[in-house]
């Protein structure tokens, strides 16, 4: 009997040990030039036992597909919002027209299809897409809306790099979550549980060869100080927006919210061994997200100022055509030259200690940009098209903030006067602004000064701004965000009210609706179709009208089409019938 109990106990101990890890989930992939993305509320069994978690997913249960696009292609996105709330989808890192950017201005109401498109001009690297609805970003990212966007180009494709998705080229989406006792997400800045590709206690098997990880910090707030449990070094091959000139060999890499990095890890000859990818966050100071050791209160969590596992790696047999050596060089980046800058914009980051903020914020202080909270009706800057600009950010905040700008990839010029380290000396769209040196939350100390340089080419639009903000979603939602428009000073701006005659045909329609402007110089800047109850059904930024508008999915009835004309920015609305 005792023997039997012992055996049962042993059996349970063994299963418990096995249950320690879960095989890491891999997002599905989509490629081509036409992408259908449907966002909806759903459930996922994230915690092994007990209730499923209420999540939001894109084409799935949690998180979304990895989109592969090629530089030079025109990509069309069909984004359908099946949530009960409005949302937006922002293409983080993409250089595209502001009206396609998916920032807080491009709101997609429930049951609406939004169809942005653009020519991929970015370098090969790992980008991502995520919601950006002001004040809702933290909550909607927490529920799991987002996905990776991988750009391929000729330069990267010609290199002997691992690129078999899920085999030797592995996406890692890092975040953390807090679960209630009934396994539901709490919307909090820091979670108690690490999620790697939405998997708790993740493990994965690697082939014994050179492996590439594409790592995204998709956390609400936390930075991850990446390293391996055996102290091995790894090669950094990209910054956010492209390849570095050459791999940079390190054994720790600090990845902040919104940033991406691709690394190569050499596992050649290590078949049968294992190693952990970890966050060495005990090495972080208290003013870097994840370095604080709050155990209670709104920022309390189990992972603060601790080292913890991100991914348990089992090394198995190599593939038949393995990459076994690391490249010595990658590309030749032509970085922007400060001598060509036409303006230095001075921005500030500060703590709002003592300042009464409306609406009230979660923490003891909000963090603010340019001495004010975000106001969607206030444009901080007008940037002239083709300007090369230096942005100089002076931070008197005690805390470090990952600063992100839309539209462009930039080059860091300096952090407190020092040139960027080799792994930061490429194309970036997020730059970490460390907290001031010395002093405390109340004042004192020496501010941090970070400078970067960017060129604002290709896309001007007086109406739709681009955003800049802290990529800690909590700070962003609390108002640590500003906006700029890129303007084209040479474009003729006719403010005269002129008629915008156009014809809609056929009317009634049932499949496709065509629009013909009487004046050939006129074109559509934005088209919105609403039904008889005023509900938005379709949003078409800068639509290509030659093939008509697909209305085949709409039910019969009266609809309204509002067209904003491109040169005059005037709006005309007409009704039509679908039968
Ligand atoms: Cu990743 Cu403005 O966002
Ligand atoms: Cu962005
Ligand atoms: Cu911040």
Instruction: State the distance separating the first and last CA atoms.
Output: 77 Å
Structural class: mainly beta
- Give a short account of the largest sheet: 9 strands, mixed
Write down the overall mean pLDDT. Answer: 93
Gross morphology is: globular
Q: Do you know the CATH architecture of the largest domain? A: Sandwich
Unreliable segments of 5+ consecutive residues: 10-18
Number of strands: 41
Question: DSSP helix count?
Answer: 4
- Distinct small molecules: CU-O-CU linkage, copper (II) ion
Rg, nearest Å: 25 Å
Number of structural domains: 4
Strand content: 35-45%
Summary keywords:
579 residues; mainly beta; Immunoglobulin-like; 8-stranded mixed sheet; 4 helices; 6% helix; 41% strand; binds CU-O-CU linkage; binds copper (II) ion
Explain what you see.
The protein has four domains: 1-29 and 159-330, Cupredoxins -  blue copper proteins (Immunoglobulin-like, Sandwich); 32-145, Sandwich (Immunoglobulin-like); 338-487, Sandwich (Immunoglobulin-like); 502-578, Immunoglobulin-like (Sandwich). 6% of the residues lie in helices and 41% in strands. The chain contains four helices and 41 strands. The strands form seven sheets. Strands 3, 4, 6, 8, 9, 37, 38, 40 and 41 form a nine-stranded mixed β-sheet that branches. Strands 12, 13, 14, 15, 17, 19, 20 and 22 form an eight-stranded mixed β-sheet that branches. The chain has a six-stranded mixed β-sheet with strand order 1-16-24-23-18-21, with no helix packed on it. The protein is globular and about 70 Å long. The termini are far apart. CU-O-CU linkage binds at residues 90, 92, 130, 132, 258, 404, 406, 467, 469, 471. One copper (II) ion binds next to strand 7.
């Amino acid at each position: 009997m005792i023997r039997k109990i012992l055996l049962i106990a042993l059996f349970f101990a063994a299963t418990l040990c096995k249950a320690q890890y879960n095989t890491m989930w891999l997002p599905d992939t989509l490629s081509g030039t036409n992408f259908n993305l449907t966002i909806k509320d759903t459930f996922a069994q994230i915690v092994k036992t007990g209730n499923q978690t209420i999540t939001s997913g894109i084409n799935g249960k949690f998180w979304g597909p990895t989109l592969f696009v090629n530089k030079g292609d025109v990509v069309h996105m069909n984004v359908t919002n099946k949530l009960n709330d409005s949302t937006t989808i922002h293409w983080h890192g993409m250089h595209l027209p502001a009206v396609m950017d998916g920032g807080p201005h491009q709101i997609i109401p429930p049951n609406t299809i939004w169809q942005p498109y653009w020519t991929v001009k970015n370098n090969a690297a790992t980008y991502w897409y995520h919601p950006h609805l002001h004040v809702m970003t933290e909550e909607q990212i927490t529920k799991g809306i987002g996905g990776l966007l991988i750009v391929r180009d000729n330069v990267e494709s010609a290199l002997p790099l691992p690129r078999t998705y899920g085999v030797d080229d592995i996406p890692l989406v890092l975040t953390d979550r807090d679960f209630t006792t009934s396994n539901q997400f709490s919307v909090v800045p820091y979670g108690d549980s690490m999620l790697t590709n939405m998997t708790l206690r993740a493990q994965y098997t690697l082939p014994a060869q050179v492996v590439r990880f594409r790592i995204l910090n998709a956390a609400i707030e936390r930075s991850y100080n990446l390293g391996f449990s055996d102290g091995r070094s790894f090669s950094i091959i990209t910054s956010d927006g492209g390849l570095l000139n050459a791999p940079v060999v390190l054994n720790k890499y600090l990845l902040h919210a919104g940033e991406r990095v691709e690394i190569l890890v050499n596992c050649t000859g290590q078949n049968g061994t294992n190693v952990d990818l970890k966050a060495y966050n005990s090495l972080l100071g208290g003013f870097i997200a994840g370095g604080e050791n709050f155990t209670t209160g709104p920022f309390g969590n189990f992972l603060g100022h601790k080292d913890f596992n991100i991914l348990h790696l089992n090394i198995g047999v190599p593939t038949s055509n393995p990459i076994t050596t690391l490249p010595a060089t990658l590309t030749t980046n032509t970085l922007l030259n400060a001598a060509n800058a036409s303006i230095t914009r001075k921005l500030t980051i500060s703590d709002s200690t003592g300042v009464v903020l409306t609406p009230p914020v979660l923490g003891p202080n909000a963090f603010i940009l340019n001495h004010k909270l975000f106001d969607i009706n206030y444009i901080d800057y007008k940037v002239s098209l083709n300007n090369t600009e230096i942005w100089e950010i002076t931070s008197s905040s005690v805390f470090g903030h990952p600063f992100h700008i839309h539209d462009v990839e930039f080059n860091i010029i300096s952090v407190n006067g020092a040139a960027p380290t080799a792994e930061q000396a490429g194309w970036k769209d997020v730059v970490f602004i460390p907290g001031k040196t010395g002093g405390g939350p109340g004042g004192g100390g020496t501010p941090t000064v970070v400078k970067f340089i960017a060129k604002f080419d290709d896309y001007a639009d007086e109406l739709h701004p681009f955003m800049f903000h802290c990529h800690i979603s909590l700070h962003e939602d609390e108002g640590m965000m500003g906006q700029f428009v890129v303007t084209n000073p040479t474009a003729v701006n006719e403010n005269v009210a002129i008629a915008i005659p156009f014809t809609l045909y056929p009317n009634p329609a049932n499949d496709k609706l065509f629009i013909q402007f009487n004046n050939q110089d006129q074109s559509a800047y934005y088209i919105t179709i609403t039904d008889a109850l005023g509900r938005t059904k379709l949003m078409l930024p800068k639509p290509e009208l030659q093939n008509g508008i697909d209305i085949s999915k709409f039910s019969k009835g009266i609809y309204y089409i509002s067209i904003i004309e491109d040169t005059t920015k005037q709006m005309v609305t007409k009704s039509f019938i679908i039968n």
